[in-house]
Design brief:
heterodimer, A: 173 residues, mainly alpha, 8 helices, B: 435 residues, alpha+beta, Immunoglobulin-like, 4 domains, 9 helices, 21 strands, 30% helix, elongated
């Protein structure tokens, strides 16, 4: 482990630090009343450590999923503005893992690649405040009948299409 | 090397988190989950939209395959059908005596400017570079190709030769034309003497000033300019000491090969004919020759030597095939009986022989398992004492023994040998009869 840390460049260590801290901060970004229990925070920290050490492992998905689930439980009755920084923090953790996954521990993160992903992060990150705005606008509106059923159907279709695309990619190759 | 595209763990993570967010938002009626999931949905979509359908092929190519120690070359990646590729990562395994840049051998970059790896061999010889792994990634890191394995290329590393320069003449030139001053008079340009005119002398040689003063025709004479035969004998019976490459310690074989290469280059540039004999290992023999192409062949043979004992049958009767009038340079640590015997027999034939001692000062043999290091140390000290006696005996026979120290190493020795060659000497009976 010490040898691994010694070989890591400063940039990569910084990215691992982002992965370590961002999910926990996203968890703590919930409103004070919704702050998670201590054991939940500890669990998230453990998962974050695993995510930072092994950015390509399933621990990353688990870590992000835990934070999302907490937000679903804690903020089911409204659209808190703190969801935006939480979304951006999770995005930062995910993209840090993406940058680390381009090569082995001794590969420094290139400036061109970093710049390209910063631009992409800014682009996709805008989606969070936009969705939050839409959610705030439509929050007081009466729900059209069957909206949640339609939404669920859409979600299922999106998941099936995505899963098919991923598996097709594997089979085609 | 064939490989295939696979979805990256990053794409799988983005898709899963998107799915969880969407389902959680709908089932749990939580818009916050949708806010958190929106960027991931976009990342998933962009990743999936760049699903590749190309079949890339990669190969690595070196700019140069023949290098001198200390020189460098670049390994470039050749990418075919790379339309779907955004990023390329290369990881080359490290090889002894080959410096890489980046030092870890790992580099990456966008496909517009394919990453290169700089390679600098630090020791002569045939070097096979380490295997390389190449990985390609699509835009938005959705799919990954590889890592594909590329086998290491081989590089021929010639010994460094730049350090040697001498201003001394070769002791005994006997060739036709060259740059060395011959003991015989001939059609040279340097002044040797003025003597009375004899029939057959060229008119342009008449010294009119002396002729007018002495009232008798006189001509100027000059020594002929001839090339010389130089034989390099390299002892590869064993490699003593540790080789740290060009910047580190030099083993006996390192010193022998580098010194022989430097002397060969110097004499070939001076117009002499140079031959090479490798004693030990796989052996090797290159006849006398001159010119750049011959130098290339000579350095090539030198770069391929390896340490090894001679077969039992020929260890005691080495034939160096030295022609008369050649100058012989023996590059050896003088620890093998065969090379010592061969050198002594050349000296006794009256040939000008110079021994370049290439044993590193602190060299000591590796101690085999199960042997007391003190006993091994004692044996080594005794062996060195024997060696000192052998070198002293060679010196008594008239064979100079010098340690290699780069430029100027041979100046004094060659000057003394040249002086000795010009001094009249008594011939043995059969030698005089032959003349």
């Amino acid at each position: 482990m010490r040898e691994l840390l010694r070989r890591e460049t400063r940039g990569r260590l910084l990215l691992r630090g982002v992965i370590l801290v961002a999910p926990v901060l996203a968890l703590l970004a919930a409103r004070p009343a919704d702050l998670p229990h201590g054991w939940f925070v500890v669990g998230t920290v453990v998962l974050s450590i695993g995510f930072a050490a092994l950015p390509e492992s399933a621990l990353g998905t688990l870590c992000l999923a835990v934070v999302v689930l907490w937000w679903v439980l804690a903020a089911s009755d409204g659209v808190p503005p703190t969801a935006i920084p939480a979304a951006l923090l999770l995005l930062a953790a995910h993209l840090s893992a993406v940058l680390l996954s381009y090569g082995p521990a001794t590969l420094p993160v290139g400036a061109a690649l970093l710049g390209r992903w910063m631009g992409r992060a800014a682009g996709v990150g805008v989606a969070a405040p936009l969705v939050w705005l839409v959610a705030v606008v439509v929050d007081d509106q009466p729900e059209p009948p069957g909206i949640w059923i339609s939404g669920l159907a859409c979600a299922v279709i999106v998941c099936i299409v995505a899963a098919t695309a991923v598996s097709t990619g594997e089979e085609r190759a | 090397m064939t490989s295939r595209w696979r979805p990256t763990p990053a794409l799988a993570r983005a898709v899963l988190v998107s799915g969880i967010c969407v389902v959680a938002a709908v089932v749990g009626a939580s818009p916050a989950a949708m806010v958190i999931g929106a960027p991931f949905i976009l990342l998933s979509c962009f990743g999936l939209l760049h699903r590749p359908d190309s079949q890339p092929a990669v190969d690595a190519e070196l700019d140069q395959r023949w290098l001198h120690e200390g020189q460098g070359t670049t390994s470039r990646l050749l990418l075919r059908d790379g339309a779907d590729v955004e990023h390329v990562t290369r990881a080359m395994a490290r090889t002894p005596y080959v410096a890489l840049h980046p030092p870890a051998g790992v580099t990456g970059g966008l496909v517009d400017e394919l990453p290169t790896i700089e390679i600098g061999p630090r020791r002569w010889g045939r070097r096979v570079l380490g295997e390389e792994l190449v990985c390609l990634t699509t835009p938005w890191a959705g799919y990954r190709w590889g890592p594909a394995l590329l086998h290491g290329d081989s590089v021929r590393v010639l010994p460094q030769t730049r350090r040697f320069e001498t201003r001394s003449e070769t002791p005994r030139p006997v060739g036709l034309v060259g740059a060395n001053r011959s003991p015989r008079l001939g059609a040279g340009v340097e002044f040797a003497d003025i003597r009375p005119f004899r029939p057959g002398d060229r008119l342009r040689r008449i010294s009119w000033r002396v002729s007018v003063r002495s009232r008798e025709l006189h001509v100027t004479t000059s020594p002929a300019e001839e090339d010389s035969g130089v034989l390099l004998v390299v002892d590869t019976l064993a490699d003593h000491g540790h080789s740290g490459g060009l910047d580190g310690d030099a083993s006996s074989l390192d010193q022998s090969v580098r010194a022989a290469a430097a002397v060969a280059e110097h004499h070939i540039r001076a117009g002499d004919r140079v031959g090479l004999r490798i004693v030990g290992g796989d052996g090797g023999l290159l006849g006398y020759g001159a010119g750049t192409r011959h130098l290339r062949a000579l350095l090539d043979l030198l770069s391929g030597v390896r340490a090894g004992e001679l077969p039992e049958g020929i260890a005691h009767r080495i034939q160096l095939r030295v022609s008369g009038g050649s100058v012989v340079f023996v590059f050896s640590p003088m620890l093998g009986t065969a090379i010592v015997t061969a050198t002594a027999s050349l000296v006794q034939r009256g040939l000008p022989v110079v021994v370049v001692d290439t044993l590193p000062p602190g060299a000591s043999p590796p101690v085999p398992d199960g042997v007391d290091p003190r006993v091994a140390g004692l044996a080594w000290r005794m062996r060195r004492l024997e060696r000192d006696q052998v070198l002293g005996a060679l010196g008594t026979l008239g064979c100079p023994v010098i340690a290699w120290r780069g430029a100027g190493t041979l100046d004094d020795v060659l000057r003394r040998l040249a002086r000795r060659a010009s001094v009249p000497r008594a011939l043995k009976g059969w030698e005089a009869g032959a003349r």
